[in-house]
TrEMBL record:
InterPro entries: MULE_transposase_dom (IPR018289). Residues 81-178 form the MULE transposase domain. It comes from the Eukaryota. This is MULE transposase domain-containing protein. It holds the Pfam family MULE.
Length: 339
């Protein structure tokens, strides 16, 4: 079998660009949003909850997509998770995702935003879009008071632009990874022992015990004569033990997840849903409407609309695999055994 020629390879590249990477003008983007801004009757139809654009002095845009079913999850709790993901568009625009969790800590997405950057203003747009879209659809106010995210200041400050922040949960998985990057000069034994101590602190369920545990941890490792350990202890105390950055242990926010892993899983599933391809801006927005958000909302619908392949009759059937928002925690036998 002969390998493809240079011309054949270039033809394939060009065909992909023609299909998925057609550059759009700001006017085309504006029209796309305006055409989808009406609140639909169908609870599972994707629509533009809010959009912003600016032509001068430089082009900016922000677009928020949701459905009536997804945005309704905003009334279910007072906490929200948020993050941004990349590698979905050729222009590598950030895609901001967010959702809330039920009493079993299962994530339910609320919507998605496509922006040009990943700044405080962009996250502020995302949170204000949730608030304004919900209130426009259901004619009543909502107010989130707790944020679960990594330690990015842009997410934190963007949330505070819109809501009254009372609890700031720092995703434990991100904290752990950050801590590991500051231990490269340690021996393997030292690293293992220090990380084991920190992991035990993370499991604390009584917030009154956290300061004592931190104090004992510091005192224990200060006895070791090592400049690298001393430097690490200073970093750990300043970065992860001060108010606003210490929300990574289990007892900090009872009933809330201590990580944003559920949201990261959603971000991975977005890439899987589009076969790890990249799209131009409007083609990606179309994918969100016809594929990504459509699947999120249908997965949570109590019924599914199906076409009979023989009679072509449209039928409404029960969704036996519906992802239900659990208002009460489910307790399994294994939970009782572990307790």
């Amino acid at each position: 079998m002969q390998p493809p020629t240079d011309n054949q390879i270039q033809h394939i590249i060009n065909s992909v660009k023609i299909d998925n990477n057609k550059n759009c003008t700001l006017n085309e983007l504006k029209k796309w949003c305006e055409d989808r801004s009406t609140i639909p009757e169908d609870e599972d139809q994707v629509f533009v909850g809010k959009f912003e654009y600016l032509a001068l002095p430089k082009q900016e845009f922000r677009i928020f997509l949701t459905t009536k079913r997804l945005i309704k999850f905003a009334e279910k709790s007072e906490h929200v998770l948020s993050d941004a993901t990349y590698k979905l568009t050729y222009e590598n625009f950030p895609i901001i995702t967010g959702g809330t969790t039920d009493r079993n800590k299962h994530l339910h997405p609320i919507g998605i935003a496509i922006t040009r950057h990943e700044t405080e203003e962009d996250f502020g747009f995302f949170f204000s879009s949730i608030k304004e879209t919900y209130e426009r659809v259901y004619q009543k106010p909502i107010n989130f008071t707790s944020l679960i995210a990594d330690n990015a200041a842009a997410i934190h400050n963007g949330f505070k632009r819109v809501f009254d922040l009372k609890l700031r949960v720092n995703c434990w998985a991100h904290v752990y990874r950050n801590i590991q990057t500051h231990m490269k000069s340690f021996s393997k034994l030292q690293m293992t022992r220090i990380l084991d101590d920190i992991k035990q602190i993370q499991k604390i369920f009584d917030e009154n015990l956290f300061p004592t545990a931190i104090k004992l941890f510091q005192e224990k490792w200060e006895k070791v004569t090592s400049s690298s350990i001393k430097s690490f202890l200073d970093y750990f105390k300043d970065q992860w033990c001060q108010e606003g950055h210490n929300g990574w242990f289990e007892g900090y926010a009872h009933g809330l997840p201590s990580t944003s892993n559920g949201l990261e899983s959603i971000n991975d599933k977005i890439k899987t849903a589009i076969d790890n391809k990249r799209f131009g801006l409007i083609p990606f927005l179309n994918e969100c409407c016809e594929n990504i958000l459509k699947e999120w909302t249908k997965d949570r619908s109590p019924t599914l609309t199906l076409n009979d392949p023989i009679t072509n009759e449209v039928k409404s059937v029960q969704n036996l695999n519906q992802k239900i928002f659990n208002d009460f925690p489910s307790i399994e036998k294994s939970d009782l055994v572990e307790a």
